Amino acid sequence: MIALAGKNAGSAAILCGVSLCCALLVSSCSNQPKTVAPLAPKGGEPDLQTLLKILSDQQASLPKNSPKLETALEKVASLYEVQNRYDLAEKYLEQLTQCIDSYGNWERLSLAYAEQQKFDQAIEAIKHSVALIEAKNNSDNIAAVYIRYAKLLEKAGRKDEAAPLRAKAKALAPNIKNSTLRWH
Hints:
Blueprint: H1 20-29, H2 48-61, H3 70-82, H4 86-99, H5 103-115, H6 119-136, H7 139-155, H8 159-172
Helix pairs in contact: 2-3, 3-4, 4-5, 5-6, 6-7, 7-8
């Protein structure tokens, strides 16, 4: 492990290459600084057991739902997502949404539910994502979330509810292509 330094010995910068895409998504959605214990030795990827141990230690020492848990929760969830173990990722994504209430975290949780055929929960999670992104009023991002929401509804067999969302997306961002936005 890397030795901790600085005023707060319970935190340090994270250098880890696990799930770059998810890390970028979480980073772009959060205004919180990334300060938690290191998750990997220098130059190496953390293994799941190491991540779970660090997360457990942090949960024992930090207040429940502390934003400082974000990075560790994100890393554990990402490892499970990469392995298509959405049943296990779900637990950490649920905790992540309680630590950092961002549209990206809610969309990831929605995907985890959808991959397990838990469509009612997936739809509730993406509704929360929609509310958060609408509050930011970025029409391109809102349009993309509407498309993903529509695709989720279609996957759940609710095509009639998806059409208005696709129309809203097209009105907000006429150049967005419905087919280019991936929803599993």
